[in-house]
Amino acid sequence: MKALENAMEMGHENVLYCYDKETGLKAIIAVHDTTLGPAIGGTRFYDYATEDEALYDVLRLSRGMTYKSAAAGIKIGGGKAVIIGDPKTAKTPELLKKYGQFVNRLNGSYYTAEDMNIGCADVDHINSETPYCVGRPAVSGNPSPYTARGVYQAIRASAKEVFGTDDLKGRTVTLTGVGSVGFALVGMLVEDGADVTVADVYAPSVEKAVAEYGVKTADVSEIHKIEADIFAPCAMGAIISVDNAAEYNCKIISGAANNVLVDTAAGDKIHELGILYAPDYIANAGGIINCAMEIDPDGWSKERALAAVDKIYDNVTMVIETAKKEGIPTYVAADRYAESMIAAGK
């Protein structure tokens, strides 16, 4: 993959490669757009098969953060970072502190936070080397519960459109990825009386969900084929393609995963199949809404954060209504809205 060419194509402002021989740090920080404010986006620690795969992920994720923040109406830009390696063996305080030094070099154009395999204790290590962190344990903490709450509201808004009510009692939900966000979302769905089936590549996460909530389980490779009212992807993105779209046996797709669609053709296919797709960066904006308040002049409060996250219900409803009115897929309606917000901020 040609790094500069791809970054230019997606409109990135800065892509920083980070390497430290002593700690074994290999990371990429991508700042996509700071038109509306400094970029905010979590750091993902993942054992990518290749550097090209890591670059592809961080470029798409950071661009998604720009659209996510703009569509949520918050005055920040989009960025993301990935640390390459197995978090079970490679993650150390020393490595995270070294990574924090690289974040600091960007002088506040990028703020980092929790993401996949990066928790509150990890952010503390990063924060020891740079002030440019949000989701800090001493302030708002892990944003996962806020992300989950936002997805829950997106599911309710989608259900209102498809079923005529946002009451989830008796609705069948298949959900992939029961990490921090997925697990919290399962709890909300079960509390509402939904019939939930989960899958995850990490067996202990599934076992925890079963023990806590008594949910059903399925194989990761087959769960999307199970007939259900709602499919909630909460793990890795880029899972829905033109080739497999017809396998999704549901009426609604709404989850916490980023970049669920491989490309626009996949979004068009889902639309043709009559499946309502709640655009991922609209549905999963709860975490960034919460984190952005840490650098807001008015400061963070739980009450303000929850109230702002609950507006995701209205945002999803707005996107659905626009898509219906203009006869376009929901992902197109969401993109146009986010782009108009960015243009208005220039």
Class from secondary-structure proportions:
alpha/beta
Strand content: 15-25%
Ends: how far apart? 31 Å
Q: Which term fits the overall shape?
A: globular
- In which range does the helix fraction lie? 40-55%
CATH fold type of the largest domain: Rossmann fold
Return the average pLDDT rounded to an integer: 96
The main pleated sheet reads as: 6 strands, mixed
* Domains (count): 2
Total count of helical runs of at least 4 residues: 14
Poorly predicted ranges (pLDDT <50, ≥5 residues)? none
Taking all Cα atoms into account, the compactness measure Rg is 19 Å
- DSSP strand tally: 12
**CATH class categorisation of the largest domain:** Alpha Beta
What letter string, H or E per element, gives the SSE order? HEEEEHEHHEHHEHEHEEEHEHHHHH
Can you give a write-up of this model?
With 346 residues, the protein is α/β, with parallel strands linked by helices. It folds into 2 domains: 115 residues, Rossmann fold, CATH 3.40.50; 174 residues, 3-Layer(aba) Sandwich (Rossmann fold). Strands 1, 2, 3, 4, 5 and 6 form a 6-stranded mixed beta sheet that branches. It has a 6-stranded parallel beta sheet with strand order 9-8-7-10-11-12, sandwiched between helices. The longest helix has 22 residues.
